[in-house]
Design a protein that fits this description.
This protein has 338 residues and is α/β, with parallel strands linked by helices. Helices cover 48% and strands 12% of the residues.
Length: 338
């Protein structure tokens, strides 16, 4: 049996309480004892290292939004003795908030932190898979045809992951753990998408099963209550937040950026992507990655929302980050596994 864990599940360990590490220890034991094989496609590795800093930034914004600078004391109350107490409490809150932020970022950035050490151990045990040009080509056409797995925008990271699975891992049963709905059925979000199931079972008739909660997978696999109800509840709430983000934000991305469209060049044999509704400035000189030719286009960074020039490789595989946000995200790349 093989296990595929989606990026959102790995990133959730930076959002969950320390109790979740017990489930992570359990998975490490399962892999070590060869009861299951963990597969780690390059696309998931890249997404994890890229988006790790975004999780930190997300939490930092939440804490910083607890603004106390805006609290003003009316002049006629300035002499009241309890106002002095209030000001002292507010100063303490400021200090504590800074300490909490520093500790949180230390745990994310420090390679020796408990969570980073456990993830490093897990990644070392995993079978890492590079993608081929053929996989990229198939992922492109999958997205062009609007076949799952995919989000409501034109990102084809999930398609790359799935084509990697079809190319190498259909000869054994597969467990997919993903909480963002990308691999789920439209009818029952706790089951694998029917189209994906048909593709997976077509050659070897092996089974594929979806878990949306990591803790539920661990409990089911070990037949023990390893993950507590509290952790499972935390995971479920994170999944709801992720699904809400996808439905409210990502589905609107194509209107501001590149629409997946293109054709196979009869002269060069290269796939050429075209931009949709971006005006003349969207079409610039193509550049080549492998045997894929792309056009640089005009868009918005999904994190800071500033306009910038992106290329489809960045949009689809790096999810459309401007240069500044990309530098921040890639700052985490060397904090684990090195």
């Amino acid at each position: 049996m093989r296990v595929l864990i989606d990026t959102n599940i790995y990133l959730n360990f930076y959002r969950l309480s320390d109790q979740s590490l017990v489930s992570l220890d359990s998975l490490i034991k399962i892999i070590k004892e060869k009861k299951a094989q963990l597969i780690l496609p390059k696309q998931i590795q890249d997404e994890f290292f890229r988006d790790k800093m975004y999780v930190s930034k997300e939490y930092t914004k939440k804490l910083e939004s607890l603004s106390i600078e805006d609290i003003s004391i009316p002049t006629f109350l300035q002499s009241y003795r309890r106002v002095r107490d209030l000001k002292e409490v507010l100063r303490k809150i400021q200090t504590i908030r800074k300490e909490v932020l520093a500790e949180y970022n230390k745990r994310i950035l420090n390679p020796q932190s408990k969570i980073n050490q456990k993830l490093k151990q897990l990644f070392v045990l995993a079978e890492k898979t590079d993608e081929t040009e053929e996989v990229i080509q198939k992922a492109y056409y999958r997205t062009l045809r609007r076949n799952p797995p995919r989000k409501d925008n034109n990102s084809f990271g999930d398609a790359i992951i799935w084509e990697t699975i079809l190319a190498r891992y259909t000869d054994d049963d597969l467990i997919v753990i993903s909480g963002d709905g990308d691999f789920a059925s439209e009818v029952n979000n706790k089951k694998v998408n029917e189209f994906l199931e048909k593709e997976f079972t077509n050659k070897y008739a092996k089974t594929i099963k979806l878990f949306t909660i990591f803790g539920e997978f661990i409990n089911d696999f070990t037949k023990k209550q390893v993950a507590t109800k509290k952790i499972i509840k935390e995971e479920r709430q994170l999944n709801i937040s992720e699904s809400t983000f996808n439905s409210l934000v990502l589905k609107n991305v194509p209107n501001e950026g590149l629409s997946v469209s293109g054709a196979l060049s009869s002269t060069s044999g290269q796939v050429v992507l075209g931009a949709n509704s971006l005006g003349a400035s969207a079409f610039m000189s193509p550049f080549v990655v492998g045997n894929l030719a792309y056009h640089i286009a005009n868009g918005k960074c999904k994190k800071c929302m500033k306009p910038y020039y992106y290329d489809p490789v960045s949009l689809f595989r790096d999810e459309g980050l401007c240069e500044d946000c990309r530098k921040i995200s890639f700052g985490a790349r060397y904090n684990i596994l090195q």
